[in-house]
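fold-stage: in
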Amino acid sequence: MLRRFSAGGVVYKEKSGRRFWLLIQPKDTDRWQLPKGWIEEGEKTQTTALREVREETGVSGEIIGKIDKINWWFVQDGEKIYKTVTFYLVAAQKETNHFDKDEVAQIGWFLYDKAYQGLTFKSEKEVLKKGREILQNRLF
């Protein structure tokens, strides 16, 4: 059994008094999910999360806080793999519209209800929900 570790971001922006959430659709799929990717050797999870968000979406941001970790099993090339992904809440700061079109078909900004409904995986829906709760409970 192999263990794999990734990090990603629950990215939001405020526009015209409304909050939007960033999702990606990986190439050659009909899934919508949160941006995430492998942690490179010697890299901190926070650095990975910001790098992967930038590479997959063209959005640079600032980490507000850690949300949670999710885990699951899958099989790749006959090998059983246990994957752990650490997600951070990320405030969008700059959008370039340049993203990795080899991996990502499209990106989209959605209001919370549409983002929640659009996410393919239940575990990522829970991470999105926790990210929104962190923002709603902030004192500043």
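fold-stage: in (second)
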Amino acid sequence: MAVTKESPIAGLTEEQLIAAQGDLREYLRLSDQIEDVVVVRGADPNLEMGALYELSIKQEHPSVLLFERIKGYPPDYRIMMNVRESALSAEGSGLEYVQALRRRRKLGVTPIPPVEVETGPVFENVFLGADVDVLKFPAPRWHEHDGGPYIGTECLVIQRDPDDGWVNVGTYRVQVHDGRTLTVFIEPGKHGNLIRQKYWDRGEPCPMVVSVGQAPVLGVVAGGASKWGESELANAGGRLGRPIEVVRGKITDLPIPADAELVLEGFVPPVAEESRPEGPFGEWPGYYGSDTRPEPVLRVEAIYHRNNPIIVGQPPAKPTFPGRLGHSQSNAAAIWDAMEAAGVPAVKGVWKLQGGGTRLITVVAIAQQHAGHAKMAGLVATGCGPGAFFGRLTIVVDDDIDITNPTEVLWALATRWDPKTQTDIIDGCWSGNIDPLMSPEKRAAHDLTNSRAILYAVRPFGWKDRFPLVNQVDPAYAEQIRQKWLGELDYLRG
């Protein structure tokens, strides 16, 4: 992990940083040690907490927010925020950060499967049957027009494929309706939806576990891109260099992280059997893209929680906030890996422009090797697994462009992109309910597809060597001159 002298984590070892990713309470302890925790006492979960969170992400690396003595709830029930964005999760900036994410994806070389243990802290408190009451726990209403309280934002939704026993761990939003009823919103095509449909097709309810407080690394792998059949729990173990310890749910027999903070367990019957109006909910593109609709329910039959439980909150916010930029780059890292796996040569960088969030605007830099190279890169970046869902725009540029700088990307578009000859429009791509451009007619027809544009803002390969030269001082010479005058000119020290 790259750490500068100015970084608040400069004094921490690699072992400490990895340990923090594998233990939420260690993450909190280390954040407090480096004075990067803001404790908020007495906040109202109805809108106030959401506003305080949004104010915090005006910083690129906001401090951990720890809400205590939440209004209307026991004083020892807590909500922790900015786990994905604070200093302990910072791994450099720009493409260095994306490369660090790629290294983290491959850390340990091979995944380490979870190991089952007899018990764990998650079983410090067990409630079954009539004793179940989700309303005892704080579930914020994050934004003004949200249709209700949402306990699950940075959560794990755990399911087992009924055909081969593969365990999938995803992140989907979870709304509280009453003491024993939740809705879990999953877009069509997502692994969680495909698994539960298999149970419904057999006339069975889908077993499900929802963890709303857990090790940071589990939130990362659950919210990231994984292949069908790939174990997120094993991937998390590979990142930590040790297996994730799991216990068996007493109702579903599903694996549960042994040190999870708060877990809700039960079954999801087919939507035709039972549903509740879900949403609306302010999503990460910055809109209430989908209206209220009937969604399947999770009938909660068991609750497990640690003493003094911590719920991890991560509500969506407009992707224009600096504190959301790093959160977006995990998808860039996944697309970069997928492009190389598909054989695209000389990929020099993949980035998500601020404003496009995790998926809407992808920028790819290549060192052109042959005619058609740019088109190959654009099509793969747009259609590969991590890039396929809910994209809008892919921009391919030459490798002399700083793709982390929006002004540089716009300059490439302004000077190297011919709209008529260097644009592809692709229809029928995989989108979802949260797409604000999805028309009411397409929603009604369940046609959740959109179009994508690929812009090739590269020097045309056939005459790229005759393309006009860039008017810029050579960077190496500029650094030489900066060093020469550094002691005399204050502006060179910035």
